[in-house]
Amino acid sequence: MRQVNVHAEGWPLHTPFVIARGSRTEARVVVVTLIEDGVTGCGEGTPYARYGESEESVMAQIALVMPQLERGLDRTTLQQMLPAGAARNAIDSALWDLECRQRHQDRWQRLGQARPTEIAMAQTLSIGTPEAMAASAMAWWDKGVTLLKIKMDAHLITERLVAIRTAVPDATLIVDANESWQGEGLAARCQLLADLGVAMLEQPLPAGEDAILANFVHPLPICADESCHTRDDLAQLSGRYEMVNIKLDKAGGLTEALLLAQEAQAQGMQIMLGCMICTSRAIEAALPLAAIATYSDLDGPTWLAADVEPPLHFSAGKISLPVQ
């Protein structure tokens, strides 16, 4: 019998994280640990209220498949037993980790990929005054960060973006509106972003209102985040988005995320690799997707006051991986 442990953890943030939907000061995650024949695998999922999840609901979903997990449930069967979301991700990630450790391989070796020594990533600016966001952008630029992801709501858009672009004229900027904009005025806002040299706009409209983007001429790429969870969503996104943001917590783990990436690319879409506010444990599970991502947004652990041990090494918009 496989031993299964499930528990929740709280990780305080060093600075409040502010997006269009609100502010948070702590990351709450659910951790699944599997022990089989003396080998331990671990996975993490972040319950997300936007998708109707809570710590309690995620743990309840995991409890539903606990007997099968103990009897050796595999990743393929898991896809049919639980819907996409944080619960399935925590289990899927734990199963990947267990498989790799049993075979003395890392995820890249399991997938037949070369393991990188460094992964470039975006650093996120949470919402604040134009002056505060510009100062934060300059501080990151001075540390060597060249790719900044700017959280935005429907207020002070011009003021914030002009202040940031003035502070970091050579930085690559991507903007994430987190569903806070509407169709009215979207064309003008897209033109503003293009005029300021913004490289990409992420999820400007509420999920479910993607039809507005059909035949919508826009001067910069638009990426689907809340509108894209699994392969089942791609049919509604084709011709409306140029990119999809893949997160393991939305896809329900690396198993589905890899298939989603493959199908999205086959349909001509680029990939953004994203994350929730989480620990290095969750980021490590997603790293094999970075090789095919146009942008990697993996800075979740950099918002934590403390990370898991041993943490990944984050510095100046990069994740450095030790040579094995």
How are the strands of the biggest sheet laid out side by side?
5-6-7-8-9-10-11-12
Classify the beta-strand content into a percent band: 15-25%
Give the total of domains. 2
Number of strands: 14
CATH superfamily of the largest domain: Enolase-like C-terminal domain
How is the CATH topology of the largest domain named?
A: TIM Barrel
Secondary-structure-based class equals alpha/beta
Outline, from the CA principal axes? globular
Order of helices and strands: EEEHHHHHEEHEHEHEEEHHEHEEE
| Rg calc | 19 Å
Reported CATH architecture of the largest domain: Alpha-Beta Barrel
In DSSP terms, counting alpha (H) and pi (I) runs of 4 or more, how many helices? Answer: 11
Low-confidence stretches: none
CATH secondary-structure class of the largest domain: Alpha Beta
* N-C termini distance: 32 Å
**pLDDT average, as an integer?**
97
For the biggest sheet, the summary is: 8 strands, parallel
What level of helicity do the residues show? 25-40%
Topology diagram in text:
Blueprint: E1 3-19, E2 22-36, E3 39-45, H1 55-64, H2 66-70, H3 75-81, H4 86-102, H5 107-111, E4 118-120, E5 123-125, H6 130-142, E6 147-151, H7 157-167, E7 172-176, H8 186-195, E8 200-202, E9 222-224, E10 243-246, H9 248-251, H10 254-266, E11 270-273, H11 280-286, E12 295-296, E13 313-315, E14 318-320
Parallel strand pairs: 5-6, 6-7, 7-8, 8-9, 9-10, 10-11, 11-12
Antiparallel strand pairs: 1-2, 2-3, 4-14, 13-14
